[in-house]
Amino acid sequence: MTTLRLPIATQQAVMRCLRHYLALANHHLETDYPEPKVTYRQRGTTAGTAHLTQWEIRLNAVLLVENGQQFIDDVVPHELAHLLVYRQFGRVSPHGSQWQWMMERVLGVSATRTHCFNVLSVQGKTFTYTCNCQTHQLTIRRHNKIMRKESEYRCKRCGSLLKPADA
After folding, report:
1. Backbone phi, then psi, for 159, in 5-degree steps?
2. Which of the following is catalytic: 56, 66, 79, 150?
């Protein structure tokens, strides 16, 4: 796998955003939390993840480059809020009341749980499955689990077992 090279200006914009929100949080919470490590090795359709015990934020470089400032404005405070909540409250519900409070009251941003970026460029191969009411696109991971008879999946709407479309 080749690693996408991020422009230095993009990395600097990420760090400016991170430092801005960290300063807001430290002031509001009367703390002195250190700057978390930021890496660009998040893969797949996930925009970013917060690794709580490592005090690290992992960002998806492809989605960052494709979405620019909107990605920075949405994802960086979202992941930082996870780290801050962990330090303040310990392990709690990932997008629960503490996280929402941290996002809205401390960081001053909307508490949205998921991103709405186009993920076609990072989406892996999918496999078509059917149930009694519709078709479904399953990831290669879920497809392989079905093939190895490790898992089975049911439609949330009708409850019937998903079967490969070509079967």
Report:
1. 85, 0
2. 79
Q: pLDDT category, 112, cuts 50, 70, 90?
A: confident
3-state secondary structure of 129: strand
How far is residue 107 CA from its own chain's centroid?
Answer: 18
Long-range contacts of 99-105 (CB under 8 A, 24+ apart): 102/25, 103/77, 103/78, 105/28
Residues 76, 109: Cα–Cα separation, whole Å: 11
Residue 1 pLDDT class (50, 70, 90 cuts): very low
Q: Which residues are registered as beta bridge partners of 50?
A: 57
pTM: 0.76
| Neighbouring residues of 99: CB distance < 8 A, sequence distance ≥ 6 | 81, 82, 85, 92, 93, 111
Rounded to whole angstroms, the Cα distance separating 48 from 51 reads: 10
Pairing of strands 56-59, 48-51: antiparallel
Whether the CA torsion 41, 46, 50, 53 is positive or negative: it is negative
Could you give the 3-state DSSP secondary structure of residue 99? helix
Average pLDDT over residues 66-72: 93
Q: Is 79 a catalytic site residue?
A: yes
The verdict on whether residue 28 carries a ligand-binding annotation is no
Confirm whether residue 82 is marked as ligand binding.
Answer: yes
